[in-house]
Amino acid sequence: MNQNKKHILNASIDLNLFSRYRNVIFGLAAISIMLFHYSYDVWHYDAIGRIDASSSVIYQAALVYYALIRSVGVEVFLFLSGMGLYYSFSKNHDLKRFYYKRMSRVLIPYLLCGGGFWIVRDLLMRDETWLDVVKDLTFYNFFARGEHYIWFVILIVMLYMIYPPVHYLLNDTDRRNVNFLILMALSIGLPMLYSWLDHDMFVQTNIATMRVPVFILGCYMGQPIREHRRIPVAPLVPFIAATIVLRWATGWHQYSPVSARMTAFIQSVGLLLLLVMAFRAAGKFLTPAVTGRVRRFLEIAGKYSLELYLTHVCLRNFVKQTSVETYEPIVYLLIMAGAFLLSVVLSRATDEILELNKEGIYQWRLRAMRRAAARVRQAA
Questions:
Q1: Does residue 249 lie in a domain region?
Q2: Do 108 and 306 contact (CB within 8 A), yes or no?
Q3: Which of 125, 149, 178, 276 is a Cys-bridge partner for 17, taking CB atoms 3.0 to 4.6 Å apart?
Q4: How many domains, in total, are found in the chain?
């Protein structure tokens, strides 16, 4: 008994588990964001009296999810993105390659999906002008009017733009920790400063700007994660428990944007630690058949996480423009299923455009013809 207790107290986990389960956690984050949007719809329509959440177990579960989990999947996504950028940039410091690869992977699917969304919504559903389409597409209205549709894209583009100097600062062996503290202070302090200077602008944009600290933390943790550093389990358990209690105590109330984002930041760290510990335990105690199926599904969702976000947001908001109610469980399940299917199509379309740019029109058409001929032979 004493030996088991001593073993538990001396146990540690490899930080590289964050990297090993990266795509799995990406998938969970993407799904959690979709579930958050559903929980928000239930909370909103219950608050205005459209529905009675107490009449349905699903609605009640959605309200609990809204209070305790909310949109923390975004913070998880940003932490893993920062970690992933550290890995990528450490292998290849070519700035041109870095910006081309990252921006093309974000902007091409955004232009394909978001461009169609803005055109249909502004021109067909709202009888607005092409100028409104341009303002929405370029995120002018995000800053000017707080138009939050697809806001995550402008955040991730800005983070990609600033990453190389962040990497160099955090890769400075002598000043790494000091530079990290400076970056954290700036990422928290600057939004708070302009909240005093221009509160309306802060309210419109804090959904993005107040989430930069967790990205900086992910960039900072990239090095110890890559180096397989270990941390003791003993202090992690009370920390994770404290984050759960913090969320339980604060999730049922509405606080200022700063308090809400900082709470989500702390919760995301505890949630990430809990997830990697849970995945490690599941690998030991559950059969490979069970863990394998779940892992494959989540990895697929993680692979298409950006496309899943884009298609889900666009599809959900198209439905919200109609008389169909998105708080209905069956409706929302159909939206999620449609988003999964469309995300695969969007990803493949992005791949084809990148290949077209890489090969040139002639080689791309030749490859397309060869693939078509191969499919015909297989069908025969």
A1: no
A2: no
A3: 276
A4: 1
- Beta strands 230-232 and 12-14 are antiparallel
Tell me if 313 is assigned to some domain: no
Residue 134 lies in a domain: yes
> How distant, in Å, are the alpha carbons of 41, 330, 350 from that of 61?
13, 15, 37
Q: Which residues, including other chains, have CB under 8 Å from residue 266's CB and lie 6 or more apart?
A: 243, 246
How are the residues of the chain apportioned to helix, strand and coil, as percentages rounded to the nearest 5? 80, 0, 15
Nearest to 193 by CA among 359, 97, 201: 201
Residue pLDDT, tens place only, 86-125: 999 999 889 999 999 999 999 999 999 999 999 999 998 8
- Residue 170's SS3 state is helix
Specify if 276 maps to a domain: no
Other CB atoms within 10 A of residue 115 CB: 13
Is residue 319 within 8 A of residue 326, CB to CB? The reply is: yes
How much is the pTM?
Answer: 0.89
Q: What is the pLDDT along the chain (380 residues), one digit of tens a residue?
A: 455 555 455 678 899 999 999 999 999 999 999 999 999 999 999 999 999 999 999 999 999 999 888 899 999 999 999 999 999 999 988 999 999 999 999 999 999 999 999 999 999 888 899 999 999 999 999 998 888 899 999 999 999 999 999 999 999 888 999 999 999 999 999 988 888 888 888 888 999 999 999 999 999 999 999 999 999 888 888 888 888 888 777 766 666 777 788 888 888 888 888 888 888 888 777 777 767 888 899 999 999 999 999 999 999 999 998 889 999 999 999 999 999 999 999 999 999 898 887 766 656 566 666 776 676 666 66
| Tokens 């299923």, residue located | 337
Nearest to 308 by CA among 343, 335, 337, 332: 343
| Enclosing domain of residue 154 | 79-229
Residue 156 CB contacts under 8 Å (≥ 6 apart), including other chains:
81, 106
Helix (H) / strand (E) containing 230: strand 230-232
Checking phi first, is residue 127 left (phi over 0); if not, alpha (psi -120 to 50) or beta?
A: left
- The answer to whether the CB of 226 falls within 8 A of the CB of 87 is yes
Measured between alpha carbons, how far is 259 from 269 in angstroms, rounded to an integer?
16
13 bridge partner residues: 231
Stretch (H or E) spanning 64? helix 57-68
